[in-house]
């Protein structure tokens, strides 16, 4: 059974930094891509950043230059370094992991971690 364990959320003042981590375990299938999404109250869940197994990254325009996604393939862990945080970054952040079984892709989600940025 796949498990995604997230950590690193919290409360920070505007301009501060946080680092999120998400460790995946529980399957023999290979990880294709990993990423972070966020959902603010009353809004849809939006992409923040993704990273492929080869290290190619993709960012939402709103976080480019402030957030950095990285991964440790040996540990099946993805990180999100968030700098210069703004109040509008406040949301629940969800880890996403896409596995490839050999015939199809399947997505798993973490439980979410709250990030609150005060002004």
Structure description:
- Helices cover 0% and strands 59% of the residues.
- By secondary structure, the chain is mainly beta.
- The protein has strands at 3-7, 10-13, 18-25, 30-39, 46-52, 57-59, 67-72, 77-82, 91-100, 105-109, 113-118.
- The chain contains no helices and 11 strands.
- Strands 2, 4, 5, 6, 9, 10 and 11 form a 7-stranded mixed β-sheet that branches.
Strand content: over 45%
- Report the end-to-end length measured between terminal Cα atoms: 40 Å
The total of beta strands comes to 11
Shape: elongated
Rounded radius of gyration (Å)? 14 Å
Largest sheet: 7 strands, mixed
> Uncertain regions: pLDDT < 50 for 5+ in a row?
none
> Would you tell me the overall average pLDDT?
95
- Tell me the series of helices and strands, N- to C-terminal: EEEEEEEEEEE
Instruction: Report helical residue fraction.
Output: under 10%
Structural class: mainly beta
| Number of helical stretches of at least 4 residues | 0
